[in-house]
Fold this protein.
Amino acid sequence: MHVDLLLADAPAPIEVPAERVRAAMDPASVLVVLDDDPTGTQSVAGLPVLTRWEREDLDWAMAQDAPALYVLTNTRSLDQTAAEQRNREIVAVALDAAEARGRRVTFVSRSDSTLRGHFPLETDVLTEAIVARGHAAPHLVVLVPAFPDAGRITVDAVHHWVVDGEATPVGETPFAQDATFGFRSSDLRDWVAEKTGGRIAREAVHSLALTTIRRGPEAVADELRTLPAGTVVAVDVVDEHDMRAVAIALHELDREGLGALLRVGPPYPRAHIGQEVPDVVRPEDLDLRAERGGLVVVGSHVPLTTAQLAALREARPATATIELDARSMIDERREAHLDAQARAVADAIEAGTVIVHTSRELITGADGDASLDIARRVSSGIVELVARVLELAPPRFVIAKGGITSSDVASEALRIRRAQVVGPMLPGIVSLWQPEAGPAVGIPYIVFAGNVGDTDSLAAVVQTLAGDDDPAAG
């Protein structure tokens, strides 16, 4: 269905200035975003991000006095037991650090805008962990998976993926076939029932529709205020102003003691803190090393990433391209293969930017857990390669494509423990970090989700950072 037809009966958009959201906020509050892969930072700027959650790390992040901070949990790459443990650990440390700083925490479980991830596990665990620390249970669990910048919108509780003006219910897209987190339902009410195994019935999920949202924050607050404790709310969103109207209402309810636990896609935290849509980062905003080329690492296997990789190679035929064979990284050939390819990358990067990608064959296991294990082993191979390249020939910049890939490259290969989110490389998508400590200081790190952008987006980001640094270019 064309998006214009989908929205034909929707109320007219409203304008909600970002400053109105900021005025509604409690200045002592801080949004702690538990990000299940690092791509959640792509919609914000000027905020601290952590890949570790020791007390000293949370103390550092809280000391920035930012309205929000991100903790990279990477739980989308973990099994349920490990994901649960990690969420509990972070809640405990974050609450201690916030109390020491005199701040109040609102927790955000940031996950995929195409509905992949550990739900309801993570919202259940966060609620339990909050209550275990003596705090009141969140009154509402609010679902805002929309990501308008990337074409993900929710209308009448049905979540859509919009490409070239055509809106497809997300349950009919390749993302719904995910080997680990697959699903059938596009209507968020049905999706909650599906994911909870019927524990939460469709009828118990409240749909917060555009008809309410576009009457303004007061109407939203009035509607939400009537809901029973523990209600899951599925939120319609088509644009930034829809999210801001919801944010103001939630701030109002929070002042009344009716707090919310948020399960959201990338842009909602920006709306919740009243941050303007950030400007795109320009090359002149960065201090790029000139002595070597950059490193582009592509691990994601979603069809969009494969198309973007093909477009990048077509746009830059002289750029060195090295393939990591996925099957060789999960058997006895692993060490020899990684050693040879790391040396090849280090040699090539002396002359210009290098593209490293995993073979495009998607290897799956017998079930979701087995498939996740294979994905982790392949991702750990990418990490080992990047770590070796960092020692042999530190690149001018690093771009990591894919959620698990970008998380592991950041925390394990580049050992980025703390960073500042500079801003997006493309409007609303693709995050650039500046590492604050460790061996990657001075190397801009670009986090590029597997499922965002158009076919030419990866090539555009590489061109922005690398220019024509191919040895045969020009």
